[in-house]
TrEMBL record, chains A, B:
Ranges annotated as biased composition (Low complexity): 241-256
Signal peptide residues on this chain, from the entry's feature table: none
Pfam families: LacI, Peripla_BP_1
PROSITE patterns on file: HTH_LACI_1, HTH_LACI_2
UniProt cross-references to Gene3D superfamilies, sorted A to Z: 3.40.50.2300, lambda repressor-like DNA-binding domains
Species per Swiss-Prot/TrEMBL record: Streptomyces synnematoformans
Record GO terms (molecular function): DNA binding
This protein's name: LacI family DNA-binding transcriptional regulator
DNA sequence: CTGTTAGCGCGTTCAT
DNA sequence: ATGAACGCGCTAACAG
């Protein structure tokens, strides 16, 4: 009862089915592929044997023979971010429509991990991959590195190479949301941004500035905080912007961050904040709630319950599922379209729209 | 320049490397596997050839030879639910620690789709799979159907078969949260539940009842709504429970659901609601906000910003990432432990804890 | 230390 | 309408 050969799982092979049905493996193969040129009688015998043995086609062997695995890879930076889980759902939807399975991995924004995962996907002969690049070099994603295996970048554009990509209108969304704040009379608008090295961080900052310029305003650099990465850092930054008398340098070591309660904002404090993503917006919300100051918030990325927080909130929204679907469509086109080098890369930009939540 | 044989992607094979290095493929294989018994000189020549050719090992061929793909499958019902995306992240974390890649698919709670996906995974020779079963029959997950391929169920227990599984303490969590409401003086506690046919729907309802019994109370069946599936249905159910004078049957066809505004709750309306999952809790929150009635809420599943909604909220929380990690560990144990039938199935139950949010 | 042999399970080509 | 032979790229088992 021990395993005979390595890799023998005991599962019946096409050979077993063929023997039982009294035909050759070729005939079994034809039946399974629904090839018409098989007599109804043998066809039935084969299917009966398949059923009796519980035979299942070995996709690995098939892939080896055919030179393609029928899988695509998806690499995201952070699946815990609802944005990326929606993206994944969109990718999966289109992929499965085309009979492709999805290998999904998470990088945690680590370039080295991304490199390893890309290697693994390539080694597994995926038909192509969709990558949300962690940032830094894209050298491991070039056609040269991947032998023209199709690659689509999502959320962030290729740098130093050509590739299909799907982006959101980061600039326009940030500009529109900021303009909305300006239209509501705000003149001192703070900026809570993710790292400028990340594409969204740069573009959304550009949008923030553009809205100011269009209104003949100059943003006050002292209200700008960039390089924020999570809820906690954003909350801290927001607190400091909104309550400058809380010393940046720890003057009173007794109660570091705890001097809360309703207070007047400082005279030069911002009257509104623009945040470049959902985590930063949440940090800002916490700060505003804790300090109880009347500040208007605007931010990128919609989120659940934004409408019932009971505070004025301007949100830049877009369709993350659709982004996944578009990325997958670009990829499938590329897969079915011959060598990747044959056509120029396409870039899709998803529209954003501004939503206004909360009390007037 | 056309492709010669089907499946010839033009990628160099081990043979090419061997030729260039003037050795046999076996030696190349040894070098790549870091087999010690290779002289440093040839080793270097081989690596040089690998580098020059941009050779990459073909994982498909390797899998065929070895009889295992180095992948595991994960099938969830709804990746858009943060709970399952965290689960996926936990699974991936442990999987990658063991050098396993993750094939992820979504069923949308459709049994037929689940069946197809399980077939596909089995066909791809995954080392094992973790499944959040959509409900209904589990016949496609039995050892017989899968030839003893390891399976771990997550979130919902096996029915009509034996299998490892990881669950949350649905009963205890619901009981504790309900008890908390009772301890705060609530006597009329409404129940908004997901379908009783789903394991969590049944267990959490049991917990709700158990808390009542433990306090010598009998829940009023008129306050119980089961079979709710999303935010919208939950909100509607909550509205009707909280404002019974809004007719269940449309008496005034003019303004169906729009008679809102602050109002007194009906005398026999519930003073608190227990909701069995995050979507239902959100529906209840919307109803409470819209009707502006003083109702305490309790619900399963923690969510972002729950703490700053400014309403009393009792949440049953648990670690979804950890659930994924545990499931993956069970699976890896099973994979490494020989035939699945050899040891009795294990069941892990994740603890829950009750969090109290909001004013008070 | 290195090479030769012999497949893993399937699909394709060519013959019958 | 059916089958025999061959090979996809890799590696375990044995030489030597």
């Amino acid at each position: 009862m021990a395993r005979q050969r390595p890799g023998d799982s005991g599962a019946p092979t096409m050979r077993d089915v063929a023997d039982r049905a009294g035909v050759s493996t070729m005939t079994v193969s034809r039946v399974l592929k629904e090839d018409a040129r098989v007599s109804e009688a043998t066809r039935r015998r084969v299917l009966a044997a398949v059923d009796a043995l519980g035979y299942r086609l070995n996709a690995t062997a098939r892939s080896l023979r055919l030179g393609g695995s029928g899988m695509i890879g998806l690499i995201v930076t952070n699946l815990a971010n609802p944005f990326y889980s929606r993206l994944a759902l969109g990718v999966q939807e289109v992929a499965s429509q085309h009979g492709l399975s999805m290998l999904l991995s998470n990088t945690g924004e680590e370039l080295e991990r991304e490199r390893g995962l890309v290697e693994d996907l390539a080694s597994r002969q995926v038909a192509g991959m969709i990558v949300v690049p962690a940032g830094g070099s894209h050298s491991h994603l070039t056609p040269a590195a991947l032998r023209d295996m199709p690659v689509v970048l999502a959320s962030r554009p290729p740098s130093g190479m050509a590739a299909d990509c799907v982006l959101v209108d980061d600039f326009g969304g940030a500009r529109d949301a900021t303009a909305e704040l300006i239209a509501r009379g705000h003149r001192r608008i703070g900026f809570l941004g993710n790292p400028p090295a990340i594409h969204t961080g740069a573009e959304r900052y550009r949008g923030y500035r553009a809205a100011h310029e269009a209104a003949g305003l100059e943003p006050d650099d002292r209200l700008v905080r960039r390089g924020l990465t999570d809820v906690a850092t954003a909350e801290r930054a927001a607190r400091r912007l909104l309550a400058p008398e809380s010393p940046e340098s720890p003057a009173s070591p007794g109660s570091p961050e705890s001097r809360e309660g309703a207070r007047e904002p400082a005279p030069d404090a911002p009257t509104a904040l623009f945040c470049t993503n959902n985590r930063l917006t949440q940090g800002a919300i916490r700060a505003v709630r804790a300090l109880d100051v009347p500040v208007a918030l605007a931010g990128f990325d919609d989120f659940d319950l934004a409408d019932i927080l009971g505070m004025p909130l301007t949100i830049v929204s877009y369709d993350a599922d659709e982004m996944g679907r578009q990325a997958a469509r670009l990829l499938v086109d590329r897969i079915n379209g011959g060598p990747a080098a044959s056509r120029p890369p396409r870039r899709t930009v998803l529209p954003t729209h501004v939503i206004r939540y909360g009390p007037e």
